[in-house]
Amino acid sequence: MTGEGYFGRFGGFYAPEVLVYSLKELQAGYSKLSRDPGFKEELNGLLSTYAGRPTPLYCARRLSEKIGGATIYLKREDLAHTGSHKINNALGQALLAKKTGRSRIIAETGAGQHGVATATVSALLGLDCEIYMGEVDVERQKLNCYRMNLLGAKVNVVKSGSRTLKDSINEAMRDYASTSDHTHYLIGSVVGPHPYPTMVRDFQSVIGAETKDQMASATGKLPDALVACVGGGSNSIGLFHPFIDDREVQMFGAEAAGEGIDTGSHSASIVAGKEGVLHGSRTLILQDENGQVSETASVAAGLDYPAVGPEHAFLNCIGRAAYTAVTDREALSAFHLLSETEGIIPALESAHAIHLAANVARELGPDKNVVVSLSGRGDKDVDQVARLEGKS
Amino acid sequence: MSAIAKVFENLKRAGDGAYIPYVCCGDRGTRFTTGLVKRLTCAGADIVELGLPFSDPLADGPTIQSAMVRALSSGFRTQMLFDTISTVRSEDVKVPIVVMTYYNPIVRMGEKAFCENLSKVGADAVLAVDLPIEESSELDAAAADNGLDVIKLVAPTTGDERARRIMNSASGFVYAVSVSGVTGAKDSLPDTALALLKRLSDISAIPVALGFGISNRRQVMNAMSAGASGVVEGSALISIYSQSSLEEDALLDLVEKHARELKNATKQTLHCDE
Question: Is the peptide bond prior to A346 cis by the omega test (within 30 degrees of 0)?
Fold first, then answer.
């Protein structure tokens, strides 16, 4: 396990032979373009004029006061075009696809945010687009489903397995196996075989890079802690990565504890998973003693995934980042807290990070600064929360 | 020489090819699996591929996915694979058995323990669909230590240099994937399959079995003429018994009849009669 695409012993290139040729082509294409100043310039142009970057770093005073500890800053990825950080990676990969001669984009989506971002950039760049989305997710994220249609994408409803994110990835991989000569598979998280975990992390690192500059302007120093939610782990690795060598900056990831780790109904693959191989990577996976992947649960569709990006498994293994699981109930409470104290309705995924950030802020105490990635806005979740709380 | 290598050598001497049916272990219960394997060998199967079901079979089409779901939802555990192999061996099934699965169930048990168990119950080879040569050194070593062949896949998009590396590191035979895509029955052989067979026969002398999409005798004969040493049939066989409400014996009769037809199509002598 010393080949390409490894983070310690995690990651790698566990792909069926039918995908190897295309993945190697992708590696070569990405490796070439990532060193091409023209590509970077074009991507940065789109990130700024189209996606609305840099996103603000906002000092959440009322939230901080309410919690009574460190000062909490929100990295406002919810204000990026399409309402989440997913646009950063979607733009990068779609531009890469276009430059390497692909005319069709496919993607998986859980909460629908990545599907919407992918449909958006496909419209922007004139590429055909098909999104795989689990039947369960389609039901709980109807609005995003319709948004994808509006943007000209076809949504393929996935009815296999648990009918959620992991099965959408399986289905997208099956599509890719027979279409990779003209199709790019735009994976939405830091998962999959090499080069995906590295490439997606690079495209998302804009979050942490901006945060570093913005904290320097706001406070003249590095933050004391970073907090983000972790499903596959793309917004969190995007925030963490530029700070990895800044040892004094603590990093905290919030996984989804669903109804509680003890109930078995959760998605906390770092907290409760075991090492294995899924979707092309060696990583931590929720699985049974026979190596069959477990069905997962979370109130947040975007966290409902039984594995995690291999770089997170590595950061956990070496103790550089600490991962905690946050329950549905805690996330819902944080969803209300942020809405009421700051007038910002967070995505349910991000609400997990808000809950953990509150704990971290309390522990650090005053005169410290915590940055939490507000990875997405909560409009998509309003219906679901109203239903859960018996208000619709 | 391994049992698999012997099978191919004997077939080659007779001018025949290998018929290799795939069976999803535990689909309709392990007792059915045992019955199926016995009938397939009665029909002349030269090697049997026994699938260890996996929850996320991303290289498989709907037919094999459904078979795996049926097996897993009825409580299939890895131990049942070993037990099933023990049972078929005790019931006088002599043909080589290749265990085909995805990598994670092997990782969970540990490559070493998995191969030891396979060897103990009388399996002959292992194939992990999502384990390319870049990552296969641990399984290769564990298999070699336990006298198992390691079957590897080659795809139409695999270049010559890579195909050479794969064929050099494989043992028993190489599994040529007929089409860039997933498993599932088709009516004819794509040009990509014929081109691949031609290419592979120029690269190495290791036997090549063609799979993915095999369902009828015409395809089998075409594969043989294009240089295949054998064919693997999976989805089409599963469809015979999964889409019928017949009694078990009647189902097995149908499967056996179909398998016999495909086996006959691998025989040189029959080609002349056509």
Answer: no
The mean pLDDT of chain A is 96
Gyration radius (Cα) of chain B, Å: 17
Is A227:A353 a contact under the CB 8 Å cutoff? yes
Calpha distance B178→B194 (Å, rounded): 8
Q: Taking CB atoms and an 8 Å limit, are A174 and B157 in contact across chains? A: no
CB contact under 8 A, A277 and B104: yes
Residue extents of the structural domains in chain B: 3-264
CA diameter of chain A: 56
At A1 the pLDDT is 45
Partners of B163 on chain A (C-beta within 8 Å) are: none
Cβ within 8 Å, pair A177-B158: no
Render pLDDT for A166-204 as a digit per residue (tens, 0 to 9). Answer: 999 999 999 999 999 999 999 999 999 999 999 999 999
Rounded to 10°, the helix B248-265/B217-225 angle is 30
Separation of CA A171 from chain center: 19
Residues of B in contact with A14 (CB under 8 A): 103, 130-132, 135
Range B66-85 burial, b when 16+ CB lie within 10 A, else e: bbbbbbbeeebebebbbebb
Q: What ipTM was estimated for this complex?
A: 0.95
Whether pTM exceeds 0.80: yes
Q: What residues of A are annotated to the active site?
A: 86, 108, 375
Is residue B19 scored above 90 in pLDDT?
yes
- Residue A364 contacts residue A68 (beta carbons within 8 Å): no
Q: Do A14 and B135 touch (CB under 8 A)?
A: yes
The CATH code that applies to domain B3-264 is 3.20.20.70
- Provide, as residue numbers in chain A, all residues whose Cβ is less than 8 Å from the Cβ of B131: 14
Residues 5-24 of A with CB under 8 A from B: 12-18, 20-22
Q: Inform me whether the C-beta atom of residue A3 falls under 8 Å from chain B C-beta atoms.
A: yes
Instruction: Express each pLDDT in A97-141 by its tens digit.
Output: 999 999 999 999 988 999 999 999 999 999 999 999 999 889 878
pLDDT of residue B274: 42
